[in-house]
Amino acid sequence: MAEQATERMTVSATPERCFEVSADIGAYPQWAADIKEVTISERDDQGRPTVATFRAAAFGRSTSYTLAYDYGEAPGVLSWVQTHGDITSKLDGRYVFAPGPNGGTEVTYHLEVEMKVPLPGFIKMRAQSRIMSIALRELKARVESTS
């Protein structure tokens, strides 16, 4: 059964800037702590990554997964679905960027994760917390440092 989580954070930048940083998939290893390598295998007619394979640290080992990106609601939403994973059978999510207070952006991150092997609840919660931290806090730091 898939676990779902949603978190929100305000970022001091425009929604367009937040989208731009999050859609620069190839740069993730520069700012997302657990992402070790990204290989982009397909791009759309605007040059944006549509299929990317990640190598990441997880549970004390290396994991890999491939995500297919959807830009149909850009720049307000960046969404993806997992097409392959070695320890996950589902890793689907989306960033939603909405104008926030004082010219900032309210970033909502939603993720659905399903593991191929059952894990104890406390391990799942720790992994979920780490993923959310990277997805929001490190995105915020990257956006605000490069704005």
Description of the structure:
The protein is 26% helix and 48% strand. It is an alpha+beta fold and 147 residues long. It has a single domain (3-146), classed as Alpha-D-Glucose-1,6-Bisphosphate, Chain A, domain 4 (2-Layer Sandwich), CATH 3.30.530.20. A 7-stranded antiparallel β-sheet has the order 1-7-6-5-4-3-2.
Topology (SSEs and partners):
Layout: E1 3-11, H1 15-22, H2 28-31, E2 35-43, E3 49-58, E4 61-70, E5 77-85, E6 88-99, E7 105-115, H3 121-146
Antiparallel strand pairs: 1-7, 2-3, 3-4, 4-5, 5-6, 6-7
Entry summary:
This protein is an alpha+beta fold.
Structural class: alpha+beta
Radius of gyration: 15 Å
Q: What is the average per-residue confidence, as pLDDT, rounded to a whole number?
A: 90
Overall body shape: globular
Number of extended strands? 7
Give the total of domains: 1
What strand line-up does the widest sheet have? 1-7-6-5-4-3-2
What can be said about the biggest beta sheet?
Answer: 7 strands, antiparallel
Low-confidence segments: none
Look up the CATH topology.
Alpha-D-Glucose-1,6-Bisphosphate, Chain A, domain 4
Strand content: over 45%
What is the CATH architecture annotation? 2-Layer Sandwich
Which terms summarize this structure?
single chain; 147 residues; alpha+beta; Alpha-D-Glucose-1,6-Bisphosphate, Chain A, domain 4; 7-stranded antiparallel β-sheet; globular
